């Protein structure tokens, strides 16, 4: 009886945990806000939560990928999972083993926007304002176009 009660309590506690955590090894950086990691023998595609990096064809797209690659390539990372997106990617906050907040580092360096449609994180908002003020990365552009606006314009041209 005690074992059953302990199992019920454990299941309840685990179900109350808001975010799953994954630990794995980065095997490939796809672009400025997406990478593949191995968790055991399973490859998982991860999209960084709360940020959006320039799309292919936008200024700073390549630099964003290179910056992310420099932060996480061939390293162990921890992902605090928020959800899965419509493409099946795991979406989360990413930390390298020295507790560097990867999502924030991209925004701070000016290689990503704070994606306020999905995140109200005050730290990401603060880092974006700092990047604007110091004209870091994409904020050197006179009028940078957000990736979501770039995608919308591109989609409208196709139709």
Give the total of beta strands: 7
**Low-pLDDT runs:** 2-17
Strand order of the largest sheet: 1-2-3-6-5
The count of helical stretches stands at: 5
The level of helicity is 25-40%
C-alpha geometry: globular
Mean pLDDT: 90
Q: Give the helices and strands as they follow along the chain.
A: HEEEEHEEHEHH
Distance between the termini: 64 Å
Decide which structural class fits the backbone.
Answer: alpha+beta
Radius of gyration: 18 Å
Report the sheet with the most strands, covering strand number, pairing sense and barrel closure: 5 strands, mixed, barrel
Report the portion of residues in β strands: 25-35%
In short:
This protein is α+β, with helices and mostly antiparallel strands.
Q: Which features characterize this protein?
A:
single chain, 159 residues, alpha+beta, five-stranded mixed β-barrel, two-stranded antiparallel ribbon, 5 helices, 7 strands, 37% helix
């Amino acid at each position: 009886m005690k074992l059953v009660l302990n199992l019920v309590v454990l299941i309840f506690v685990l179900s109350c945990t808001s975010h799953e955590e994954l630990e794995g090894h980065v095997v490939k950086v796809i672009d400025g806000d997406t990478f593949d990691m191995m968790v055991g023998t399973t490859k998982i595609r991860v999209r960084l939560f709360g940020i959006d990096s320039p799309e292919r064809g936008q200024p700073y797209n390549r630099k964003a990928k290179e910056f992310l690659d420099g932060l996480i390539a061939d390293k162990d990372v921890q992902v605090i999972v928020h959800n899965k997106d419509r493409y099946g990617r795991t979406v989360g906050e990413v930390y390298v083993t020295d507790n560097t907040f990867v999502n924030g580092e991209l925004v701070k360096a000016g290689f990503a926007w704070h994606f306020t449609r999905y995140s109200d994180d005050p730290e990401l908002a603060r880092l974006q304002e700092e990047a604007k003020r110091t004209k870091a990365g994409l904020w050197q552009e006179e009028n940078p176009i957000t990736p979501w606006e770039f995608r919308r314009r591109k989609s409208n041209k196709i139709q």
